[in-house]
Amino acid sequence: MDLKEADILKDSIKDHWYYISKGRAMRKMLGNLKVSEILDVGAGSGIFSRQLLDAGYCDSAVCLDTNYCSEKIEQYNGKQIFFVKSIECASQKLILMMDVLEHVPDDSNMLNKYVQDLERDSLVLITVPAFQFLWSSHDVFLDHYRRYTMKTIEELVVKAGLTPVKSRYYFGILFPLVAIIRLIKKTLLGCGILKPKSELKIYPSWLNRTLIAMHDLERHTLFRLNKFFGLSLFVLCRKN
Length: 240
What we know:
This protein has helices at 3-9, 17-30, 47-54, 107-115, 137-141, 150-159, 175-190, 205-220, and strands at 37-41, 60-64, 72-76, 79-84, 94-98, 123-129, 162-170, 232-239. It is α/β, with parallel strands linked by helices. Helix 2 (17-30) crosses helix 3 (47-54).
């Protein structure tokens, strides 16, 4: 999760359709999993860790982000969240990497760094932006290096010693409209007419609720079978 977007949305982030919908899809991927502690790599504000703590998936969370100004421990609804800038090795049974790998020049090296010391059968849940042809000013603003397909992300995780358990595209309902808009914006960006900026913003409450409802429908119908199109990719992996 990007701290730039947290700065844009501020306190509204917990109610924003994108983070609510993505969090629900995250929990759908994890099923009935229960662990004592999670490691949330590139956690930003910790929104996804908080969602898992609220839903009872874990008893504590370690939120890791090199962009934190300082380290701290937060008491959250009777549970602890550790905000840290680095760790020596990952020992948790579940690692989240929610929209992280696209931010680094060497995604293979970063993934290896956090999974190499994991115990066998530990889980890693990864999300990344999908399809390079959707590259736009949004990616430039967020300092992305690439977007992925299911094939490229699965090849990456296998190389790191992980086995893909589930792979899904998400935000498929919005895909046709957003694809058209981003192709236009990509052209404008290349011509120097458009400046890089995030596409996330605060919406009127009625539209926010509508977008949440749309993606609830997608999650209950299309998500389980969607290996074809979407704005984001989810991959749940197991350590070999």
